[in-house]
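sorry for the late reply, my laptop died twice this morning and i had to redo everyting from scratch. anyway the thing you sent over, i finally got around to it. pasting the sequence first so we're on the same page, its 78 residues, then the predicted structure underneath. double check i copied it right bc i was rushing
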Amino acid sequence: MKHIIQFSITRENKVYTANGVNIPIVTEGRTFEKLQENILDAVSLYFEGEDPVSLGFAPSPTVLTNFELIPSLHDNKA
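ok and here's the structure:
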């Protein structure tokens, strides 16, 4: 039983994208605040009318986000 719904967040072309790590959800937002709102909305819709336990989650799972930073290894700013 999973107690955490996990998302990996990236930013590309001025858009934040959240990809569910252990749940089939993908959402995006132009700001980080809008992305957070969209994640909560998407999770709510995913579980709407469903028992989280029947989907392998605890009755009240929490949401964990990880923001991925992509370093510029060839930036030539040395």
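The beta strands are 2-12, 15-20, 26-29, 57-67.
thats about all i looked at so far, will dig more tmrw
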